[in-house]
Design a protein that fits this description.
Radius of gyration: 22 Å
CATH class of the largest domain: Alpha Beta
Strand order of the largest sheet: 4-3-5-12-6
Order of helices and strands: HHHEEHEHHEHEEEEHEHEEEH
Strand content: 15-25%
CATH superfamily of the largest domain: Periplasmic binding protein-like II
CATH topology of the largest domain: D-Maltodextrin-Binding Protein, domain 2
CATH architecture of the largest domain: 3-Layer(aba) Sandwich
Distance between the termini: 42 Å
Helix content: 40-55%
Length: 302
């Protein structure tokens, strides 16, 4: 597996943009890592990195090589997973990319449930805005992506699409907590904590404000939905979230839906690269998510 280790070294340098940072991640010295890169470049007969004052970046030859490396590593992971599955003991590693509106509130319980049945499967969770989550698929950084927003059908395959109505989370003593459901104008008198620009949910909320002609009173924006939810416990501020149910289990919080006439809808996609055969572990985990969507949102899942 010496070649695999060499490929992993190149991949880490490409991801970090720095030989020193990559060496720290790989637990080797930067001098040793640089020697390995120079040896590979000598073997290829061409440099693959541009040396910059603040680090390195792939040149054209390096971009071609990194695509091959990531494809090879993904194929090896698939075969390794299939071999392990023959023994009846599921092993493997799953990379999932998604926005913070999904990975912070939705994924934890589903990964925990999956790992109770398959404790030898490990996960990497990558927080990515929609475009970056899709790019992670094409660059073999992710096996699956959860994307709240549009997905180009030419390159990607949606394994499941769920239509979701945005909900509003608030502390239990909030004045709006007494309402069974909300209208948009109900929210205008209270501070709003909004997702940072770039997230799928941010885009949906900005479009809703323009359409309704009534902007929310934003006081804070954040990339962290955990921060948004925790902050709303200390002020009569509103956090806008997807209706996965996990927040409703928090005894300090309540979640309210909008009236039908004021509903704000978006689509969540479970996506893979079109034509790619997933490793067994990733394919089986995708099946569990699809089953959950079909059971929880039967009329809204395709």
């Amino acid at each position: 597996m010496r070649l695999l280790a060499q490929l992993n070294y190149i991949d880490m340098v490409a991801k970090t943009g720095s030989i020193r940072r990559a060496a720290d991640q790989l637990n080797i010295t930067s001098t040793a890592l640089n020697r390995r890169i120079l040896a590979l470049e000598d073997e290829l007969g061409t440099p693959i990195f541009e040396r910059l004052p603040q680090g390195v970046r792939l040149n054209t030859a390096g971009e071609l090589l990194i695509q091959h490396i990531r494809h090879s590593m993904a194929e090896l992971a698939k075969v390794t997973s299939q071999i392990a599955d023959l023994s009846g003991v599921r092993r493997g590693h799953i990379n999932i990319a998604g926005g913070s509106e999904v990975i912070g509130t939705f994924l934890p319980q589903h990964i925990a449930r999956y790992r109770r049945d398959h404790p030898q499967v490990s996960f990497d969770i990558l927080r990515r805005a929609p475009e970056a989550a899709l790019k992670a698929l094409t660059e073999f950084e992710a096996d699956l992506s959860l994307v709240f927003g549009a997905v180009p059908p030419t390159v990607f395959q949606s394994l499941a699409t769920v239509e979701l109505n945005i909900t509003v989370a608030m502390r239990k003593g909030h004045p709006l907590a007494e309402h069974a459901s909300l209208r948009w104008m109900d929210c205008l008198d209270y501070p709003a904590i909004l997702p940072a620009e770039g997230s799928g949910l941010h885009h949906i909320l900005m479009a809703a404000q323009l359409r309704k002609g009534m902007p929310l009173r934003k006081v804070i924006s954040s990339e962290s939905f955990e921060f948004m939810l925790n902050y709303s416990r200390y002020e009569d501020a509103l956090a806008f979230i997807l209706p996965f149910g996990e927040v409703e289990e928090n005894p300090d919080m309540v979640v309210r839906r909008f009236d039908d006439g004021d509903a704000i809808e978006g689509r969540l996609h479970l996506v893979q690269t079109k034509g790619r055969v997933l490793p067994v572990a990733a394919a089986k985990f995708a099946e569990t998510l699809i089953q959950h969507f079909n059971a929880t949102f039967p009329a809204r899942t395709t």
